Predict the 3D structure of the following.
Amino acid sequence: MSKCGQCIIKRFNALKSLTHDELEKFSDHKTSLFIKKGENLMTEGNPINGLYCIRDGKAKLTKLSTNGKEQIIKFVKGGDILGQRSILSDEPVGLNTTALEDMHVCFIPKQDILDTIKENGQFSLNIMKVISHQLNQANTLISQMAQKPVKERLAETLLNLEEIFGVDNEGCIDVVLTREEIANTIGTATESAIRLLSNLKKEDVIDLINKKIKITDKNALKNMSDGY
Amino acid sequence: MSKCGQCIIKRFNALKSLTHDELEKFSDHKTSLFIKKGENLMTEGNPINGLYCIRDGKAKLTKLSTNGKEQIIKFVKGGDILGQRSILSDEPVGLNTTALEDMHVCFIPKQDILDTIKENGQFSLNIMKVISHQLNQANTLISQMAQKPVKERLAETLLNLEEIFGVDNEGCIDVVLTREEIANTIGTATESAIRLLSNLKKEDVIDLINKKIKITDKNALKNMSDGY
DNA sequence: TCATTGGTATGACAAATATCATTTATTTTT
DNA sequence: AAAAATAAATGATATTTGTCATACCAATGA
């Protein structure tokens, strides 16, 4: 199995402040796992005993609401780390992590993480920064969900998706989601999401190519997301 | 000014893991401030240079959405600490903190906090726990805002308010909010909030006494918040 | 005391969104 | 390739929620 020291993923996340020795320890203890599209990496309510570092692939983080509907809270991709919140607060996992495509993930045991947090102040601060940033994003999302109508939330979501996943060589947002998943992201009925996407296409703001979405008028979307 | 070592507030929050020397340092550097009802302790977008520890009083944490409406994200009270997210992520303040009644607050300079985080692993972990817990709550709220209809969100909010602020000697939720503030918490129009409160009173689930709300049938509210 | 103000309440109506039904397209299985 | 299953699209309609208008009430100050 490859060494953590050589993994380029670590350059992009909180692991970048680790010393050589700490990386060696992680390397020795880590396990590598492969998750198939549709499978769960973590499940809401379950305990967790380590940190996951995504080497490759995309996933949705979801919550099941009391009425049985799935709410997508967040999307993650290669370079993101998962499980830190649950490890730190010593609470069960809060969100389901479901692979949107086949994933390759590294697992680092909880104790190694906690030891390193105590020893390496900079690593500790980096992890805090990640969580702090996530909290800020979550607060923003609460406000948007509560205040914005569905059309604005859809516009916002499309811009977010392009921001997170980038575009493929045809200019399409580089992730494949079902209409239902888009609806579950913005918190609306699948039919409503479909209708609004159709409207956006008619208004020449987006293009629907195969299973992917291409933003053709980003400014229009930005204005729309702000209610203009 | 009183010493941090004697402050009972510290028993209830992340400050409880501080050593005697650390508390002394905080004591020497801290300043005490009084915020009148309606005034802001922190303002969205502003930089922050320390941690606030609420000794007494209640506040709402809000975000102004692009359409100019206020969204209440969270309520805080004596014993809660504020500003840790912003300090740690080195980002501007994310939420306005507005006093719901006169407040007494202690301010501890940022550098003291950062020094202590590096030196005291347990304090560091406690702060992380606080933020992690907040992130979990925020994620839950996203799901509720996105998936639940207004009536269920109101029921949920009333239960939350009683949980946070407790009840006074008449059994009323011990905080005074305007109808507009309740509406801004659940993300609806003021008139809708008023109407739904009136309905709840007619259904004998709550009682409206002066400016306060008394939950008279908690079970009914719980069921309602779950959509039954 | 009266007048003014801000918060609360309620009705009438409009707009947004969900639900149900049906059709069409796309993918998967046989 | 045909059949079956799943996903997407669209119309019709019901429900929820927001907006506007107006009335009411309670606190406050001249």
Chain A touches chain B through 46 residues (CB under 8 Å). Residues 149-151, 188-189, 191-192 of chain A lie near DNA strand C (CB under 10 Å from a C1'). The CA atoms of residues 172 and 214 of chain A lie 4 Å apart.
